[in-house]
Amino acid sequence: MPYIPHTEDDVQAMLAAIGADSIEDLFDEIPAHLKAGQLKALPEGLSEMEATALMAARARQDAGALCFIGAGAYEHHIPAAVWEIATRGEFYTAYTPYQAEASQGTLQTIYEYQTLMARLTGMDASNASVYDGASGLSEAVLMALRANRKSKSRRVLVPRSVNPRYRQATDAICSNQDVELVEVVFDAASGLTTPAALAAHAGDDFAALVIQQPNFFGGLEDVHALTDWAHANNMLVIAVVNPTSLALLTPPGEWGEQGADIVVGEGQPLGVPLSSGGPYFGFMCCRQQYIRQMPGRIIGRTVDLEGKPGFTLTLQAREQHIRRSKATSNICTNQGLAMTAATIYASLLGPDGLEAVAAHCHANTRTLVAKLTAIDGVSEVFSAPVFHEAVLRLPRPAAEVLAALAEKNILGGYDLGRDYPELADCVLVCATETRVESDLQAYAKALQEVLA
Amino acid sequence: MPYIPHTEDDVQAMLAAIGADSIEDLFDEIPAHLKAGQLKALPEGLSEMEATALMAARARQDAGALCFIGAGAYEHHIPAAVWEIATRGEFYTAYTPYQAEASQGTLQTIYEYQTLMARLTGMDASNASVYDGASGLSEAVLMALRANRKSKSRRVLVPRSVNPRYRQATDAICSNQDVELVEVVFDAASGLTTPAALAAHAGDDFAALVIQQPNFFGGLEDVHALTDWAHANNMLVIAVVNPTSLALLTPPGEWGEQGADIVVGEGQPLGVPLSSGGPYFGFMCCRQQYIRQMPGRIIGRTVDLEGKPGFTLTLQAREQHIRRSKATSNICTNQGLAMTAATIYASLLGPDGLEAVAAHCHANTRTLVAKLTAIDGVSEVFSAPVFHEAVLRLPRPAAEVLAALAEKNILGGYDLGRDYPELADCVLVCATETRVESDLQAYAKALQEVLA
Amino acid sequence: MSGKSIDQQLIFELSRPGRRASAQAPKALPQQALANIPATLRRKQKPGLPEVSELQVVRHYTNLSTRNFAIDKQFYPLGSCTMKYNPRGANRAAMLPGFLGRHPLAPESHSQGFLACMYELQEFLKDVTGMQGVSLTPMAGAQGEFAGVAMIRAYHEARQDDGRTEILIPEAAHGTNPATAVMCGYKVREVPVNRDGDVDLEALKAACGPQTAGLMMTNPSTCGVFERQIDAIAKTVHGAGGLLYYDGANLNAILGKVRPGDMGFDVIHMNLHKTFATPHGGGGPGSGPVGVSERLKPFLPTPIVGKDGEQYRWLDTDDLPQSIGHLSAFMGNAGVLLRAYFYARVLGREGMIRVGEYSTLAANYLLKRLQAIGCTAAYPERRASHEFLLTFASEARELGVTAMDIAKRLLDYNQHAPTTYFPLLVPECFLIEPTETETKETLDEFIDAMEKILAEARENPEMLKGAPYTQPVRRLDDVKAARELDLVWKAPR
Amino acid sequence: MSGKSIDQQLIFELSRPGRRASAQAPKALPQQALANIPATLRRKQKPGLPEVSELQVVRHYTNLSTRNFAIDKQFYPLGSCTMKYNPRGANRAAMLPGFLGRHPLAPESHSQGFLACMYELQEFLKDVTGMQGVSLTPMAGAQGEFAGVAMIRAYHEARQDDGRTEILIPEAAHGTNPATAVMCGYKVREVPVNRDGDVDLEALKAACGPQTAGLMMTNPSTCGVFERQIDAIAKTVHGAGGLLYYDGANLNAILGKVRPGDMGFDVIHMNLHKTFATPHGGGGPGSGPVGVSERLKPFLPTPIVGKDGEQYRWLDTDDLPQSIGHLSAFMGNAGVLLRAYFYARVLGREGMIRVGEYSTLAANYLLKRLQAIGCTAAYPERRASHEFLLTFASEARELGVTAMDIAKRLLDYNQHAPTTYFPLLVPECFLIEPTETETKETLDEFIDAMEKILAEARENPEMLKGAPYTQPVRRLDDVKAARELDLVWKAPR
Ligand SMILES: Cc1ncc(COP(=O)(O)O)c(C=O)c1O
Ligand SMILES: Cc1ncc(COP(=O)(O)O)c(C=O)c1O
């Protein structure tokens, strides 16, 4: 009986103490007609050896390609220490720190994480993670509706240059509460959200403006102008940012005159493997005045009976287990372990290390773009400066070219036609610090061959 | 400065405390002409990312073959828990438990290991590991010379059916102390050490007889007869055993009338990966009366100031750090972590699990032999029953056939011609529980093709 | 004589300007490399991340970790949380480089291995729950609930059945249930629970009507007993045109024994981080797949894994135009799902059934033995499911010792405390869930500890108020934490 | 109020007949499958391995591990042991499936990746030591010593220089040195050490003669000082026809700064588990490669990695007929060597030199500060190398407080004790080695602890005799352990 320790003697002793004849008797309150028959889809159990061999074969099947896809998930070097420590039983197999005295390890780690994220984003406070960047945006939108006292609207302005997957998830989640996401077009030349595009909405009642930096195309928005415009129009500013980029870029807390109000984003770049899309973690920060509207767990520092410092869950009156239907969100289990990994990662990188990572990503992507646009018929689409992704136009439909590249074991980027019909011949490419010169060359060579 | 934490401020403060102007000053006692110039062979330092990528590429280069080599190192399933726990910093980065009170984790683990090995081998005591099986045999030989009061000889009888690598290492080590290993031939039909072969040495003065079970050819020796013969001739019996096999086979403590006197072997099959040959660990057990002659660390249970049980190094008067030139051996650092892994492994397998592993190894090897000997020109060489290895004769030189198989990514066994000229067309094959039916088939198919 | 108390500094307090874990950073590039980025968008001050050495980081977080209770170290009988053994083999399998390195947007040609695992997991989950369709995307139980209720909403909307504005929820329900209903735009109406832990059927009937979108419940309920009137409840809700939602947090109790689909539920979420033994990671991640009956299949959240011949492929909103859509950027917590897949493969058909059996055996044994040493069961007439409720209301009244005091004292006995004060309807309660992976000896140790604590409560109640005594900190001041918010460390000047 | 003391049972005490970690065992086979094995060779009783569940094993050894000090948790200034940070990156690289899965006897065609690492490591080690040939096979320092002295012997024998029966060893030397000499069939003659830690040169001259096979020493010596007369010593020994052996345990002190080859040593072993930062694993494994000067190259232990064009290949006794041969079954502790290779690649040329520099800086700082708080240096006139000696002889005399008492008390301050009572020639000594990977703050904490303990020694010497107070056990009775041997657990009846 895998993972079940009971011997026949144990079972008999336990049944005797209960006063039951058989285990089956313990289910005697269940109406007989409800009892299940045999399971069918499930095969016979395997040993650990067999299950491991099976999964190792499957993992091998998918491995080995050279990947230039970003589009919201980025391959970075992850120091070995990160997951060797994060998977220590004490972190890996603990529950949510409800018994604070027996969970100081997790609690202090979260407090450090909160400090870290507040410093990286330039905000006052952080929660202990939400599911991911996309669902984080939906929480931010709902939070903005609660927080913006100046607005009565259930509408939020969302540029088309914001990650379409974030927009879709936010719509799927928030539309249940009749929230409307109103699109703002991007400038066809720069790929940015321009004041001109926003002007159409000036004076309208919106609860918030979402600003993604860098935007989905990798471009750097004029966040200062956008932020100030939103605040001038009584909107809160929800920043969606890439944490790696913050080692280089103005933190949302310093955008424009007053800074962003709520900051969310995908925490994956901070030490979390690509892993097919999860577990990652969404981070969420805000200004002091909005803390009580923030969803998710928050840790506070306090003292014990003897005055010694310690950490505990706080502001629980925002949460479902206390406030039930009046909670800020239904979130309960979050992405704790990934957040723990990120805290270790950021500590290992430090400010200079993270900046060096960001700089290498930027430089590698620039080099890749130069190499690829040297190929006939390939050009860069947008004029805006980018962080570590860029949009390239191909002489043929992107889907077709990407499929041909995949046959050469090169995953050549994200097909923008999936979300932007007008960009059906465009790919979004990314080269992080993990790509070396020969990788970039391999891509260029393969593309040349495919397009020849 | 990788792994060095000192900031410029730290360095200045430390130099000031020392009263030195520069780090170079601290080397002022070293004659100037001895100072080294630049290192040449060493390249510039890499980041962890770069070094990891380099080694990952190299590791991939060597991976992927289907292996049927045994010959002293065996692929077994290793439960994930084994190394996830053994590489916890507390085990992985601790030193030898010289400060017992701060090392109870390691010490209790060793005490459990000693108990385990004593039970597996049927002996009274165990040390905390020596380097490997081969060097372990050399220690056993030296120990037997010290322990056998009835013999004045520096000669030991070692059958040719004992692992030739063990014989070579033992010779390389013991010949420095003028110890002579005298060979005993094996029976050409059975591949075993027979009473007839031993009879030639009856009455001669030897300190010990070495008995390997299963022997290098995988064959099962008549250990009872051999043991009794040795004892009758005033020799000690040194058993060399495979720990997995002991789940099935008579433990050395029960060989013949009195049992073996010293037991050694390679511990690798107990949860230690093949890993190119190391780190493995040699185990070493003995009868109560010889404990004071045993080399290596030994842990004892005792009590603390308050009478609470605890564990500590004991019988240190045998060891080099106390007895220096009079020590039983020069061994200091041993193979502790591998031994820790083995302790966890054996606990996870338990008596039934280890027996099942042994039985599958046996059955798989028998199936493989059947499949291969069904091929024209391939035959089993020896008649003796085997544990999990067998010798096959090929119609062509083994080296040639193995090379052809390797091109098909099948490592078809060990070329016995390397050590036994008379077996130049023979391979030693092994199929442990990790080999499945389709693996065995793949081997048979490839061999058929190679020999066609 | 205690020597130095090993107080744990913050990683930020270990920071020194210019210190770095150099092996981890790529070589610095000349600023020239960044010339493309406009100065106005560059950050002016370095972010205040810690500047520490690699050894400092390793030592700091290793030491921090030791200040946690965890399954790998202690018995952890948190009711409703299913703290069972998290197989290490599952961790190793999910952390295979081939899985860790796969980009979520990798083409299907480079994803067949992963997709095969996910497809099979979908099939397994259908089988054990008796549902007709499964989506793996929800990232935790609460997101599964969200998906489920959003599907109920989408279903009614698709039928233009517009007046359904209310979700019914038994008062014992977990907080996520009402919070979810509200996130889906519903009003919540709570339904009372009987003295014996079952739903008050008359009250339910009275509450049901044309405004009823559905009922969310779990069975066995969070009272730790099996809801015996489930047929009648299903009939009532369905009769009113509502749908039945199953909160799968308690699935462990009945895994393989009773299938929610057979009980009449239309939609269910599963907490794989409970029932399927994936770890909790100190708060997450989890995974909350949803299963649905035939009529809700069109609404499942995307993506889902489909199979064309021998090829696996993603089904997305193109294939499922009525889907409630994406709830996250990619496909869910893949790494958690791989662990659950491993677990399902190892347990297999027979193993699944044993889970419900042995977790129920353990709970009933523990309950009976605790009653024998003087604990008060909330529902003494009932069988325990995989968990059960005790109440310390009389201890609180007579000795002034609360459930919280007993919980804290348990920590001194190296036992994690059960869930306290949940569900809210039972005063001073413990919800205790031992799971099937703990030995009888471990249960007996817990019983011994409880017996000693009950004796302490009688002899020295004041002492219990001071518990715990053996942890890194004594009892913490939660009020101060909330009143004088200290959420982010600021360097003292 | 302490609740339950978490006493650790033995894994055997947790055993129950018939319990098993079933996921780990293959399915049992019918006895028929074993029919080939003669009954007389079958074991009659199952071996008494523990019968426990997987969770029990995980929990038991996880909890056991927490009862250890370790680099990852504490400062660990064990002199002569070089307890520096063990990079986690090295562990990950060495545990790559491709490396773990490689059979030691795999053909060269399937070993080029591994052999490339080993070949380069050989080259690196030659470079940093200034030697002409390297073999990686010795499995620890002591086996390296054995290989080295065996080569000295083989060298003399090859020249038929037969009267050389003695190895000279300074009295401060590590115990493995004399033990090794004896294992190689030599007699040991100890050479005294001066008041300032250098070898007594006159005594050495007197001891040298035609019977001298060689001298084993380390420089810096285990007195923690650099042997300044090394030129004269080399001349003396070489002049007498002996060879010079370098015990590389202290290589960390001079890594990249001074090369043993340049000092005149003929043969050297390195402790990669010290200088090259591979972990100690609670006692092992280590790795003790040997390096030799030109004249000893023919004798190196096999196998060695050679290079033909672009192909790497094993050189064995066929290629090196004068080799002292194999010291183990395969090629040495490959996994440790891979870790060392990783370390060397990350440090690179510059990093190697910094090791010696910063470890020396740390030692001299610590020495000076400890002297300032009242500790007595054994060699106050000397620079510290990477380590240094304190003596508590006066504390022992005046207060009755021994080095052992202070060592045990340090544990209460969460500091691992330095090496005690070694070398034997300095009474009541501490040999302290801080290494280059510890921060100044960590050194300062150690100084603070020592200051407090010295105060305690004056105010309350009795208290120190009872130390430690904060560990899982109080001071253990070693005498009882040796007198009433309890080496193997026997179930009480
Ligand atoms: C009964 C019940 N429902 C729902 C949930 C929510 O699940 P999750 O924490 O995964 O979001 C829980 C988790 O604690 C629960 O116990
Ligand atoms: C000076 C010295 N020489 C030799 C050795 C022996 O090395 P090993 O323990 O690796 O065998 C040591 C190890 O402690 C040492 O300190």
From TrEMBL, chains A, B:
CDD domains linked = GDC-P
Gene Ontology molecular functions: glycine dehydrogenase (decarboxylating) activity
**Domain Glycine cleavage system P-protein N-terminal residues, every copy:** 3-444
Q: Which InterPro entries match?
A: GcvPA, GDC-P_N, GDC_P, PyrdxlP-dep_Trfase, PyrdxlP-dep_Trfase_major, PyrdxlP-dep_Trfase_small
User: Can the keyword Oxidoreductase be found in this entry's annotation?
Assistant: yes
Q: Which UniProt keywords apply?
A: Oxidoreductase
Pfam families hit by this protein:
GDC-P (PF02347)
Annotated catalysed reactions:
N(6)-[(R)-lipoyl]-L-lysyl-[glycine-cleavage complex H protein] + glycine + H(+) = N(6)-[(R)-S(8)-aminomethyldihydrolipoyl]-L-lysyl-[glycine-cleavage complex H protein] + CO2
User: Which top EC class applies here?
Assistant: oxidoreductase
E.C. number(s) listed in UniProt: 1.4.4.2
Top-rank taxon: Bacteria
The signal peptide, as residue positions, is: none
Query: What does the record give as the function of this protein?
Result: The glycine cleavage system catalyzes the degradation of glycine. The P protein binds the alpha-amino group of glycine through its pyridoxal phosphate cofactor; CO(2) is released and the remaining methylamine moiety is then transferred to the lipoamide cofactor of the H protein.
Q: What is stated as this protein's family in its record?
A: Belongs to the GcvP family. N-terminal subunit subfamily.
Could you tell me which HAMAP family the record lists for this protein?
A: GcvPA (MF_00712)
Q: How does it assemble?
A: The glycine cleavage system is composed of four proteins: P, T, L and H. In this organism, the P 'protein' is a heterodimer of two subunits.
Provide the protein name: Probable glycine dehydrogenase (decarboxylating) subunit 1
What is the scientific name of the source organism?
A: Alcanivorax quisquiliarum
> Which gene is transcribed and translated to give this protein?
gcvPA
TrEMBL record, chains C, D:
EC code(s) of this entry: 1.4.4.2
Q: Give the modified residues of type N6-(pyridoxal phosphate)lysine.
A: 274
* Keywords of the record: Oxidoreductase, Pyridoxal phosphate
Please list the residue ranges annotated as the Glycine cleavage system P-protein N-terminal domain: 35-307
Question: Which SUPFAM superfamilies does the UniProt record give?
Answer: PLP-dependent transferases
Looking at the record, the residues that make up the Glycine dehydrogenase C-terminal domain are 357-459
Q: What are the protein's GO molecular function terms?
A: glycine dehydrogenase (decarboxylating) activity
The protein depicted here goes by the name Probable glycine dehydrogenase (decarboxylating) subunit 2
Q: Which cofactor does it need?
A: pyridoxal 5'-phosphate
Q: Which reaction does it catalyse?
A: N(6)-[(R)-lipoyl]-L-lysyl-[glycine-cleavage complex H protein] + glycine + H(+) = N(6)-[(R)-S(8)-aminomethyldihydrolipoyl]-L-lysyl-[glycine-cleavage complex H protein] + CO2
Gene name, per UniProt, is: gcvPB
Tell me the Pfam families matching this sequence: GcvP2_C, GDC-P
Superkingdom: Bacteria
> Subunit structure, per the record?
The glycine cleavage system is composed of four proteins: P, T, L and H. In this organism, the P 'protein' is a heterodimer of two subunits.
Q: What class of enzyme is it?
A: oxidoreductase
Q: What is the lineage of its organism?
A: Bacteria, Pseudomonadati, Pseudomonadota, Gammaproteobacteria, Oceanospirillales
Q: Any idea what job this protein has?
A: The glycine cleavage system catalyzes the degradation of glycine. The P protein binds the alpha-amino group of glycine through its pyridoxal phosphate cofactor; CO(2) is released and the remaining methylamine moiety is then transferred to the lipoamide cofactor of the H protein.
Recorded source organism is Alcanivorax quisquiliarum
Sequence similarity: Belongs to the GcvP family. C-terminal subunit subfamily.
Q: Supply the HAMAP family for this chain.
A: GcvPB
**NCBIfam families documented for this protein:** PRK04366.1
